[in-house]
Design brief:
96% helix
């Protein structure tokens, strides 16, 4: 029974560590999403300026 409890404790610790890593990855993905949205906006504005001047 003690061995089972120890194994479950180690498993819980592993899950906790994985949750921390997943949260960090989620944060990085959110940052990348914001950067991509900003770049998309810049490209859209640049395209509008280019076509406005060529019209």
């Amino acid at each position: 029974m003690d061995s089972l409890i120890d194994s479950l404790d180690r498993l819980n610790q592993t899950f906790d560590k994985q949750e921390i890593r997943i949260d960090a990855i989620d944060g990085r993905l959110d940052d990348h999403d914001r950067i991509l949205a900003h770049h998309d906006e810049k490209l859209t504005n640049l395209s509008k300026e280019v076509f406005k001047h060529n019209a």
